Amino acid sequence: PFARAIAPDLIGMGRSDKLSGKAEGQRKPAYRFFDHVPYLERFIEALGLRNVTLVLHDWGSALGFHYARRNEENVRGLVFMEAIVRPWRWSEFPSGWKSVFRLFRTPGTGELLILGLNMFVRGVLPMATVRKLSREELAHYAEPYPTFASRRPILRWPREIPINGRPAAVHEAVEAYGRWLEEAPLPKLLLHARPGGIIDEVEVERLRGSLPNLTLVDIGPGIHYVQEDNPHGIGEAIAEWLGRR
After folding, report:
1. pLDDT attached to residue 104
2. Of the residues 66, 171, 192, 224, which is catalytic?
3. How many whole angstroms separate alpha carbon 209 and alpha carbon 133?
């Protein structure tokens, strides 16, 4: 009763088309952060979406925050969970994931782990939920990525995380919207889980003290893929928040 809900798959992921590479002027499609940006923005334009409340998670949060900073007049509010709210240094990166993400970012090793062994779906996904995902659920996640080439979007994302200033362009974009989030009066809803993954208890407190017009809701046990652990709690919290505005 509060809003029309639209959930796009990012380009190359889910049921969205894969990039050919040829159209992008590249031998292989890159799927970098800035390759995704125009697809999302033109999607919003093509559907004529106005007065948008963005509901954001993981790389969707980076794309959404980047959009909101540059199109504030079209954004009604921001809902986010397990979001990329600032760049990291390796010393700050979640300790349980540091080693594996270093490997994902290592040329050759990352290709073997993600393109070859499909370790994001087989390993990271089930480790980042509290409840045990069923074989059928994991198969559903794996379905869009049956081949080496189809997994390239998954390989690119861990290499785009702004850590120690690299990649420089992504670091600059995340730093810019991080500063904007600390100034923008837009209503914000942070849904945080326990223990959390990239937004843990310490980060929740930092955001509580730094973001204006912020509402916080504890959605209970969860790590990174919180939608798998508490989908109804997330939906109810968003509906209640929208209903009060």
Report:
1. 98
2. 224
3. 35
Does 200 qualify as catalytic in the annotation?
no
Q: Are 85 and 181 in contact (CB under 8 A)?
A: yes
Residue 59 gets the label, from left (phi > 0), alpha (psi -120 to 50) or beta, of: alpha
Q: Which residue of the set 58, 92, 111, 200 is catalytic?
A: 58
Tokens 């559907």 locate to 47
User: Which of 36, 57, 66, 82 is an active site residue?
Assistant: 82
Distance CA 6, CA 122 (A): 28
Q: Which residues of the chain have pLDDT under 50?
A: none
| Omega prior to 221 cis, within 30 of 0 | no
Helix locations, the chain, DSSP H: 33-46, 58-70, 95-104, 109-110, 119, 125-127, 135-142, 152-160, 168-181, 201-210, 226-229, 231-243
Between CA 203 and CA 159, with CA 141 as vertex, the angle to 5 degrees is: 50
pLDDT tens digits, 114-128: 999 999 999 999 999
Residue 224 annotated as catalytic: yes
**Which residues lie closer than 8 Å to 153 by C-beta, 6 or more apart?**
10, 11, 12, 13, 18, 31
Burial 152-163 (b: 16+ CB within 10 A, else e): bbbbbbbbbbbb
> Among residues 225, 208, 242, which one has the least CA distance to residue 123?
225
Q: What's 88's DSSP letter?
A: B
Tokens 């993600």 label which residue? 114
- Copy the structure tokens of residue 167: 């990649």
The verdict on whether 82 is a catalytic residue reads yes
Sign of CA dihedral 35, 36, 39, 40: negative
Collapsing DSSP to helix, strand or coil, 27 comes out as coil
